[in-house]
Amino acid sequence: MRSLPWKRLLFALAPAVALLLGAEAVLRVAWRPPPEVRGAEAVRGTLLHPHPTRLWAPAPGALDNFGVPVRIDEDHLRAEVAGAAGPLVLTLGDSSVFGHGLTEPDTLHARLHQALAARGVDARVRTLAIPGYSTEQLKVVLEEVGWDMGPALLVVGAMWSDSNVDHFQDRVWLEALRAPGSRLRRLARRTRLVQWLSERAPIEETGQASNHTAVTWVQDATRTGLRRVPLQDYAANLDGILAEAAARGVGAVVLTPCSRSRLASSEGTFAPYVDAMARVAARRGTPQVDACAALTRDGDAWFLDALHPNGAANARYADALADALVAAGWPTRALLPSPAAPFDTPLVDPYAPTLPATAAETRQALLAALDTMKDDPLAGLAACAAIGEPASRELCAMAVIASDRSLGTQACALPAEPEGCWMALALATREPRWCARAGARKEDCWRELSLRPEAPWLQEGLTGAALVDAVSAQLTRAGLPVDHAETWRFVFSNPDQDCAAYEGTVAERFCADRGGSPPAGP
Question: Quick check: pTM over 0.85?
Answer without folding.
Answer: no
